[in-house]
Amino acid sequence: MRPIAAFLLVLSLQAQPTHQGWWMTEPIRWVQTNLRQTDATLDPARLARQLADMHANVVLQGMGGIAAYYPTHTEFHYPSPDLPAGRDLFGDFLRECHRRKIRVVGRFDLSKTRKAVYDAHPEWFFRKKNGEPVIYNGLYSVCINGGYYRVQSMKILAEALERYDVDGLFFNMFGNQSRDYSGVEVGLCHCGECRRRYREAYGKEIPDSPDEDYRKFMFTSSREVAKDIGDLIRAKRPRAGYFNYIQEYTDGIMSESNTAVARPLPLWPYSASDRVNRARNSQPSKMAVNLNMQFVDYWWRFATVAAQEIALRAWQNLAHGGALTFEVNGTLDLQDRQALEAAKPVFRWAAEHERYYVGQESAARVLLLGAPVNTGRTYSEEAYRGAFRLLSELHIPFAVADNLDWIGKRSFDLVVATDWAPAELEPYTAAGGKVLVLGARRPDFTMAPIVRTASDVKGYIRVRDHRSFPSLKDTDLLLLNGAFTLVEADGPHSLTLVPPSMIGPPEFIHIDMKDTDLPGMIGKRFGKGAVIWIPWNLAGLYYRHSLPAHGHLFQDLVDRLHPERQLRTNAHPLVEMTVMRQGPRALLHVVNLSGHSQTGYFPPVPMADIAVDVEGEFGRVTVVGKSGALPSRRNGGRTRFTLPRLDSYALVSLER
Q1: Are residues 232 and 351 in the same domain?
Q2: Same domain, yes or no: 465 and 584
Q3: Of 422, 424, 530, 586, which is least packed with CB atoms within 10 Å of its CB?
Q4: Which one-letter DSSP state was computed for residue 55?
């Protein structure tokens, strides 16, 4: 199959449901041990006991690839040099874990191997443009289109799957990596096989830097191999799960909540919520496994992030219906045990109340469109994060999707789009949908005649009609900084552009300020529904500056399009709330983010008497882990109650 045809086929299949394996029918408390090759001498029974004591029921354990932890007999696959002669560490560990009802997912890294393989088959390896291989700490990077990935790795995996009754396989660093562990860019692969395939698909040579065609080429190449691996796993071990950092052909969508010392500020305290919400709602037939990474950065694998950050991520993973996770480098015998000790009570809680943490689905009635996958287009992460924060701080339950597969399958009261408003939203709206578009990038459907987009406007937005924006009763001007799309004015507008004017000296500040009739908001009816477009970066400005005026405008826009809120509460903005469905039961997860400040995570501030008014009439309201039902009132299809106390996390069960 030609690569472009394969690319289109993969896109058509990426949301295809997988079989309902244990990862979807059992609660998951997942620990990853990133074994070093020197850990090949560990005591498997002791590690299994440690996991059992922690209440883990799934472990992701090193199995093979760069180093095998069993006596492999497949050519070009090598056991750890520290594995004692005759020792089968992985086999022994698998038996010890299965005795304790702990599932084992084997970890493979097929992205690199030894020089001996390169010497025997140089055509299998990644080649820089100058023809040199990519070498890191003595290991040679292989190419996704070469014989190691496409042929030899299948032999390696077949041996492992035939030999061990694993519960799943996970693949790290899958495909051609553009940079090494030190962050050094290695460029694009120019090996003979890549060049041949690329010429065949696109009739040209591989570019110096990735463009849309090259991204599609790499996408197709990696998914071809991913499909072969998935087919092999299901043929050899039908009950085993397939986990990777990609969505296609896998059973679980892997991601990471992690840190890095050079990462731009501000920190993103919704990291776990973001990743799990997006994965569970973009691909609802697959489990979200967001790894809770304990270390600070690659250079400092044994230095631990704040204990409260570990706990916050853990609660967020649970609150959005994902797996509870914890990751360490090496074994559980850590030199900095703060993260481990923070994770243990969360694992214990999840084990004690595990019936609540399986089969959860989002009950949110608002959708936030995330970055569209596999399109190659740019997307504003700041705008997306700003909308994510605003919805969270306003306690509006929402789902995130990076595709349009939900159209016709799931009903939403409101769709929020920050930098991607696809044409499919027009018929969705005509059928009765409500859409809020935030950003200067014009929607892919016609809202109004476009004049042009100005890339950098340092001006204001004038509030002309305060009755339409009750939250802005004390605000006449809103800060505008960035792109603004000018559309033809067709009458009076409640928000209008105030262009830049003089900013100094003080005697001249804005004395030349002039109002315009250019709209700062465009509303349009489509059939039974409506769209409001804010043609400037409202959400991105909120993410960067957190100005109340931008937040108040967003609140009023949502109230206009979505007046019947699913959830109303007096909770602090830094209390995150999710509403999940579990069969006939509804679950309200309440996560306290008040311990996050700038670059620090501290114990959250306890809160009391959080009033909740939720859609649906429920006969019994209980706080999980507490005795007795909460007093509640039911009226007009809604239920009201008060959560007496919130420490770091609370779970409220609502039953009819």
Answers
A1: yes
A2: no
A3: 424
A4: T
| Residue 122 belongs to a domain | no
**Is residue 319 in a domain?**
yes
Same structural domain, 606 and 528? no
**H-state helical runs in 43-82:** 44-53
Determine phi and psi for 45, rounding to 5 degrees: -65, -40
DSSP per-residue string spanning 376-418: -----HHHHHHHHHHHHHTT--EEEESSSTTTTTS--SEEEES
Structural domain range at position 601 = 568-655
pLDDT at 16 over 80: no
Q: What are the counts of helices (DSSP H) followed by strands (DSSP E) for the chain? A: 16, 33
Q: For residue 496, what are the CA distances in angstroms to 8, 464, 507?
A: 43, 7, 26
Q: Are residues 407 and 344 in the same domain?
A: no
Instruction: Specify the residue for token string 């890095």.
Output: 260
Is the Cβ–Cβ distance between 327 and 292 less than 8 Å?
yes
- pLDDT bracket for residue 156 (50, 70, 90): very high
- Predicted confidence (pLDDT) at residue 379 exceeds the cutoff of 70: yes
Q: How many domains does the chain have?
A: 3
pLDDT digits (tens, 9 = 90+) for 475-489: 999 999 999 999 997
Q: Which 8-state DSSP code applies to residue 540?
A: H
* pLDDT of the residue at 15: 41
SS3 91: helix
Taking the C-alpha atoms of residue 474 and residue 454, their distance in angstroms, rounded to an integer, is: 28
Q: Three-class SS of residue 371?
A: coil
List pLDDT tens digits, range 571-605: 999 999 999 999 999 999 999 999 999 999 999 99
d(CA 83, CA 33): 17
- Cα separation, 353 vs 313, in Å, equals 18
Q: Are residues 553 and 613 in the same domain?
A: no
d(CA 66, CA 206): 28
List the one residue out of 423, 465, 468 whose CA is nearest residue 442: 423
Considering 539, 565, 591, which residue would you say is the last residue of a domain?
565
H, E, C per residue of 223-273: HHHHHHHHHHHHHHCCCCEEEECCCCCCCEEEEEECCCCCCCCCCCCCHHH
Q: How confident is the model over 609-636, as pLDDT tens digits?
A: 999 999 999 999 999 999 999 999 999 9
Q: Please tell me whether residues 261 and 340 are part of one structural domain.
A: yes
Which residue stretches of 14-111 are H helix? Answer: 22-25, 44-53, 89-99
Residue pLDDT, tens place only, 409-434: 999 999 999 999 999 999 999 999 99
Segment 341-358 mean pLDDT: 98
Of all residues in the chain, the percent with pLDDT exceeding 90 is 93
Which domain CATH number covers 170? 3.20.20.80
Q: Name 205's Cβ contacts closer than 8 Å, sequence gap at least 6.
A: 195, 198, 199
User: Pseudo-torsion of CA 586, 274, 181, 81, nearest 10°?
Assistant: 0
Cα–Cα distance, 547 to 476 (Å, whole number): 14
pLDDT of residue 20: 84
pLDDT of residue 376: 63
